[in-house]
Amino acid sequence: MIPRQVSRRGTPARILDAAERVVQTRGFASFSYASVAAELQITKAALHYHYPGKAELGLALIARYGARFRDALAAIDASAGTAPEKLDAYIGLYAGVLSEQKMCLCGMLAAEFDTLPGPMRAEVLRFFEDNERWLEKVLDQGIRENSVRMRTGAQASAVLILSALEGAMLVARPCGNPEKFRAAATALVAGLTGANAGEPDPAPAASRARR
């Protein structure tokens, strides 16, 4: 689960917390300043004081979520684990969100991408690009330590992992069964690790040339 500070939260953080819960469960189009203000028992004027408009609030939501996610990835890196261990920890970030019956914030926003303001679209893209780059580095590490095998290059495999995890969340959530997500995610990573280690490298020449 992505860690968050929970003590001594001021009004701006409480606003973001409330809005984030709505976006992660119902989408960006489904929350209003009136409902957030009512939940927090503050006036809409107070909410507008901190976030003048929905676009500004949405941008702050993504920026905070992305920063927390980057911190979580840095913590995984600091563990100095193997590539399979890092991939399992990465899956755990998504599983933690799903266990609360929520979706990845940026995954939800991606479904509404065309209706989002330009700055929000840019931050959503940044989130996915950051994740793809991190996954590519982990996969490259796995190649070096002979714990990962890929039939495509690290970049394409990183996109596949990220896309599959976001999709697996979408499929598992209506079932109310996080284990369904975990099973799918584990099977995905098992295709890159485990039994393949030590076997002849099936990667095409173009992929091997990247090393």
Key phrases:
single chain, 211 residues, mainly alpha, elongated, disordered C terminus
- Work out the helicity level: 55-70%
Strand percentage, roughly?
A: under 5%
Chain oligomer state? single chain
Based on CA atoms alone, the radius of gyration comes out at 19 Å
Task: Using the alpha-carbon principal axes, give the shape.
Answer: elongated
Query: How many β strands by DSSP?
Result: 0
* Tally of helical runs: 10
Can you walk through the features of this model?
By secondary structure, this protein is mostly helical. It has helices spanning 11-26, 33-40, 44-50, 54-78, 83-99, 105-111, 118-144, 154-172, 178-190, 205-208. Helix 5 (83-99) runs antiparallel to helix 9 (178-190). The two termini are 32 Å apart. The relative contact order is 0.12. The model is unreliable at 4-8 and 195-211 (pLDDT under 50).
